[in-house]
């Protein structure tokens, strides 16, 4: 048996209870233990508690000194596009000069520029870049990440992306309906191809399917067709919806019982109500809204109406070149008006729910995977409070200290 004891922690913090997803007032309900320990055994959490209640342990326990540190659950990033080649730094400079994301997309740049670079890369290069991005995420405290395909949009590159994500330890999502590649005349003929030629193998590699329901990408009937076929192939369903315009994403999400609808920057009061009354989780991506200079999603209204929300980075080279969930927590507190506690639950237990892993990830409690982040702060809320600072002093994954790059 391998055992790890982190002792004398200033604080140990976990979303309370065992429910997932957390909604309403329960979202901000944390258990905070002061002067705490966590004992990990064989990759799982065996016990947490106060130092004074820690009984004697035999010698074969590895020890980590937690003095001055706070322990939070390993962060879960449930929405990234971490597998890509190239960059979009030229577009970034153009946007700084006034060009909009939508204009660049319509002119064949944007997502399609990353498609060109990703198609030109070998599978090995894609695997390497995903591993590099994973190391950035880990440095910021992310111990579980999802990553989407969607920069291949041809059979071989889409499948290579999904394999690269798996190889890097990520949770792969087939974003087969991200954009219409130039060799197809329209979205319908591209979907004919993707569903006939890619879906079967993609479903063998991915856990979920995702679609970009937006003007200039896929409309509601096309999203419905794609998602229905993906569900028949056994995939969990997710959507990019209401990013720039409300085109029926939320009603469709509810109708098809998708796991999550992500973005929601354009969601109005009717959409908030429908989402709040459903089992669909709304994924908030404030880093993307910030990076594009767009309105923030109505997070406070969603939580107050009773919707389940998660918080993620949307890490990608175009709309959100930022892999930091601590920064997302700062944005959640300053821009989305969520409390630090709500932000933490949204990128731990609720994000784990989006990835179908809430029974093992997102909490520091007996039986959960021993994934934890050690913050060099004696108050865990520095995670959100200290804007842009790196407080991650250590990361433990499966009961073992991880190498931070
Ligand atoms: O979630 N909106 C569509 N897809 C991504 C952006 C991908 C890109 O710009 O490369 C997003 O923002
Ligand atoms: Fe995205």
How would you sum up this structure, described in words?
The chain has 405 residues and is an alpha/beta fold. It has helices at 89-96, 101-106, 111-120, 123-139, 155-167, 187-205, 220-232, 249-255, 269-276, 286-292, 299-305, 325-334, 340-346, 349-354, 382-385; strands at 3-15, 30-41, 44-50, 62-65, 70-73, 75-77, 142-148, 171-177, 208-212, 236-241, 260-263, 281-284, 309-311, 372-375, 392-397, 400-401. Strands 1, 2, 3, 4, 5, 14, 15 and 16 form an eight-stranded mixed beta sheet that branches. Strands 6-7-8-9-10-11-12-13 form an eight-stranded parallel beta sheet. Helix 5 (155-167) runs parallel beside helix 6 (187-205), helix 6 (187-205) runs parallel beside helix 7 (220-232) and helix 9 (269-276) packs across helix 11. The radius of gyration is 21 Å and the shape is globular. The two termini are 28 Å apart. The mean pLDDT is 97. The structure holds N-(iminomethyl)-L-glutamic acid and fe (iii) ion. The site of fe (iii) ion has 4 residues, from loops.
Topology:
Blueprint: E1 3-15, E2 30-41, E3 44-50, E4 62-65, E5 70-73, E6 75-77, H1 89-96, H2 101-106, H3 111-120, H4 123-139, E7 142-148, H5 155-167, E8 171-177, H6 187-205, E9 208-212, H7 220-232, E10 236-241, H8 249-255, E11 260-263, H9 269-276, E12 281-284, H10 286-292, H11 299-305, E13 309-311, H12 325-334, H13 340-346, H14 349-354, E14 372-375, H15 382-385, E15 392-397, E16 400-401
Parallel strand pairs: 1-4, 1-5, 6-7, 7-8, 8-9, 9-10, 10-11, 11-12, 12-13
Antiparallel strand pairs: 1-2, 2-3, 5-14, 14-15, 15-16
N-(iminomethyl)-L-glutamic acid (NIG) is lined by residues 81, 110-111, 114, 212, 240, 243, 288, 314, 316-319.
């Amino acid at each position: 048996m391998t055992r790890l004891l982190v002792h004398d922690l200033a604080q140990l913090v976990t979303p309370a209870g065992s429910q997932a997803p957390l909604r309403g007032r329960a979202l901000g309900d944390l258990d905070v233990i002061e002067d705490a320990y966590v004992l990990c055994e064989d990759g799982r959490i065996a016990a947490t508690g106060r130092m004074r209640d820690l009984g004697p342990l035999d010698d074969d326990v590895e020890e980590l000194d937690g003095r001055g540190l706070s322990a939070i659950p390993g962060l879960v990033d449930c929405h990234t596009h971490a597998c890509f080649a190239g960059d979009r730094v030229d577009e970034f400079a153009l946007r700084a000069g006034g060009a909009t994301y939508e204009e660049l997309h319509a002119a064949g740049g944007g997502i399609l520029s990353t498609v060109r670079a990703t198609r030109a890369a070998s599978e090995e290069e894609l695997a390497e870049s995903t591993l590099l991005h994973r190391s950035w995420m880990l440095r910021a405290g992310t111990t579980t990440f999802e990553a989407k395909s969607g920069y291949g949009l041809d059979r071989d590159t889409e499948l290579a992306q999904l394999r690269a994500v798996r190889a890097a330890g990520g949770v792969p999502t087939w974003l087969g309906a991200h954009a219409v590649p130039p060799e197809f005349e329209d979205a319908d003929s591209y979907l004919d191809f993707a569903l006939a030629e890619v879906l079967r193998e993609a479903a063998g590699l991915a856990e979920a399917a995702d679609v970009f329901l937006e003007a200039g990408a896929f409309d509601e009937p096309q999203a419905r067709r794609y998602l229905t076929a993906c569900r028949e192939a056994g995939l969990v369903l997710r959507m990019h919806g209401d990013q720039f315009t409300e085109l029926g994403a939320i009603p469709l999400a509810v109708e098809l019982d998708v796991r999550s609808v992500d973005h929601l920057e354009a969601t109005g009061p009717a959409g908030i109500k429908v989402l709040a009354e459903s089992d669909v989780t709304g994924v908030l991506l404030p880093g993307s809204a910030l990076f594009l200079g767009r309105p923030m999603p109505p997070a406070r209204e969603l939580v107050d109406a009773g919707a389940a929300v998660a918080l993620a980075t949307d890490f990608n080279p175009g709309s959100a070149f930022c892999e930091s969930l601590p920064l997302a927590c700062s944005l959640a507190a300053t821009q989305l008006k969520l409390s630090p506690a709500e932000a933490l639950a949204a990128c731990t237990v609720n994000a784990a729910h989006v990835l179908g892993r809430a029974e093992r990830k997102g909490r520091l409690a007996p039986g959960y995977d021993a994934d934890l982040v050690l913050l060099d702060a004696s108050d865990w809320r520095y995670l959100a409070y200290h804007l842009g600072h790196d407080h991650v002093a250590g990361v433990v994954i499966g009961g073992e200290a991880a190498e931070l790059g």
